[in-house]
Write a structure and sequence with these properties.
The protein is of the alpha+beta class and about 170 residues long. The chain contains four helices and eight strands. It has a four-stranded antiparallel sheet. The protein has a four-stranded antiparallel sheet with strand order 2-5-3-4, with helices on one face. A hairpin with a 3-residue loop joins strand 6 and strand 7.
């Protein structure tokens, strides 16, 4: 299972710019709920536009009155996790691109298979869309485009990425 979770940090520097908070768990037994809540709360300061979690093939997202993790966790209790839960991805979003909606809140389902969450800003997003022959209307946020390109082209795509990034992906 550890090999199914990809963690990659590529040239990420804060430089005084707010960035999203991403966090996760991958293990051989069910994670500690208290530790997951703590990770979400610690990362809350990294983004106040929305938040979300992925576990057991479920995506839960907080926007509006639930956009902060402390409010979101009151309405989305981790208690329904089973003992078989081995992977959790979490995200606190500071939006650099796209509206503050549930559709744009992370984590995302990429290619109907991969859970994906991203921190960073793809500075050459528009150029890459054109180069790859992709339609801008298919991507409300650069994070979904990044996830698609990583699946389609592999790690080599990061050589074309301008900006800093950190992401978590689960197959």
């Amino acid at each position: 299972l550890l090999s199914s979770l990809i963690v990659k940090i590529f040239g990420l520097k804060n430089n005084g710019i707010l960035c999203c908070g991403i966090w996760g768990f991958c293990g051989s037994k069910k994670p500690s709920i208290d530790k997951l809540l703590l990770l979400g709360l610690i990362n809350q300061s990294r983004g106040g536009h929305s938040c979300g979690i992925y576990y057991e093939n479920k995506f839960k997202k907080g926007v509006g009155t639930d956009k902060l993790f402390e409010d979101f966790m009151q309405n989305n209790i981790f208690g329904e996790m089973t003992k078989d839960c081995k992977v959790v991805l979490g995200h606190n979003r500071y939006a650099t691109w796209g509206e503050h909606t549930a559709d744009n809140a992370h984590p995302f389902l990429i290619k109907d298979r991969y859970a994906f969450t991203h921190n960073g800003s793809l500075k050459n997003f528009w150029d890459l869309l054109r180069e790859k022959g992709k339609a801008w209307k298919d991507y409300d946020v650069d994070s979904v485009f990044l996830g698609d390109m990583l699946i389609e082209q592999g790690w080599d795509f990061l050589q074309e990425y301008e900006g800093g990034t950190a992401f978590l992906m689960n197959d």
